[in-house]
Amino acid sequence: MGKGIFITFEGGEGCGKTSHIAALAEYLRARGRERVVTREPGGTPLSEKIRALLLHDKEGEGMSARAEILLFEAARAQHVDGLIKPALAAGKCVLSDRFFDSTTAYQGAARKLDLDEVKSLNAFAAAGLEPDLTIVLDIRAADGLARAGLRDGNAADRMGSERAEFYESVRSAFLRLASENPERFAVVDASGSKEETFAKVVEAVERKGLAKCRT
């Protein structure tokens, strides 16, 4: 059994991650690749419970930034141990809607938590796991928020209900991470049509040879 492939999608609100992950999963399926689609926070029953607390449940209202990041990391640790690592060990292609780079961007840059501490927490929760490829779907924060508003009927979850400056910080953080880690990241302009954007996603995957992962 060959080693699996781990691809993560990152970006701000309304950038199109969910749609392009679904399209890439179908692209890989058509090539005979066994794939697992997942998300953060979430992916396992426990992690989904934490997701609800972070994003929707009234009990999560007003949580501190430190409590928030620890809940994200707890969800990630269970996600890695319970789903991602077993799938990769079985030779599958794992496609995740967000991973630890979102924590760096949202909790580190936008919430202004210490970046060295965020990095340490990310490393602990991920147990040394890093994506083979991280695709950042880049779009102006205002445009992404407008798309998200249409998608959600202006009923955003808590992470989608911050001030505009928050999302500008998130976007800048993703672009900075990509510039610092060019071997792992691919920045894709997501401002065009879905077809144009997905063609760039496929190009990034093919350029890394990741569509050839073994089942």
Approximate helicity band: 40-55%
Domain count: the total is: 1
The ordered H/E elements are EHEHHEHHEHHEH
CATH topology grouping:
Rossmann fold
Shape annotation: globular
Distance between the termini: 7 Å
Strand content: 5-15%
Low-confidence stretches: none
Q: How many β strands by DSSP?
A: 5
Number of helices: 8
Q: Largest beta sheet: what is the strand line-up?
A: 2-3-1-4-5
User: What is the H level of CATH, i.e. the homologous superfamily?
Assistant: P-loop containing nucleotide triphosphate hydrolases
What's the overall average pLDDT, rounded?
92
CATH-defined architecture: 3-Layer(aba) Sandwich
Structural class computed from helices and strand pairing: alpha/beta
